[in-house]
Amino acid sequence: MLLFAPIQRFDYAVSTWCLCHRFNHYTARASRLISRTGDGHLYLLVALLVMVADRPASFGFVKTGLTAFAIELPIYFLLKNLFKRNRPQRLPSFVQPSDRYSLPSGHTAAAFLMALLIVSFYPALGWLVWPWAALVGLSRVLLGVHFITDIVAGIALGLGAAFFALEVQ
Question: What positions carry a catalytic annotation?
Answer without folding.
Answer: 107, 146
